[in-house]
Amino acid sequence: GFDDEDSPGSSSGPHDKSWQDSYAELLTHRLKRNSFQVSPKSPLHQWIQDQRLEYDKYVEGKPSALTSDRIRKLNSVHFPWKVNGQAKSEDLPCSWEEMFGNLLAFRIRCQNFNVPKQDYQLYGWMSAQRLMRLRYQRTEKRSELTEERIQKLEDIGFPWEETAIPPAWPKAPHFGPVAG
Hints:
This protein is mainly α and 180 residues long.
């Protein structure tokens, strides 16, 4: 049987919650199901439909509940604005976008970036972003970490400081003190 643990006995309608709460619910759903597909009976389904309608208004220059900040947040997790327009490659686990989505869901759920070392995949990915950014700053050589991706990480408050890498992590690059 399919056990829907997202909202058992939820009495509040989709408009009773704040946008941020629904956004967090969307990320949690995506993390659990590895998909944006939601049961049509779920309040989240209506919220997703609303985002698409508001986006169309925004693009047409009409008054919309969507702000550029909200659009940027949804874009950062590759929200499918068109029902059948989602590229399948973006659903592959371990893509940069997928890992970013996982990190964002973790931050929303835990209110911090203290990913446990036991979560090797996400913890290692964070370390890799820091290393790639350092290389990028030193050489301005294009890597997997583009200017756009750096901005996405900065938009969610990603901790770039070396203090965020515990010394016990075996493959952590050793950085000297950060000036400033």
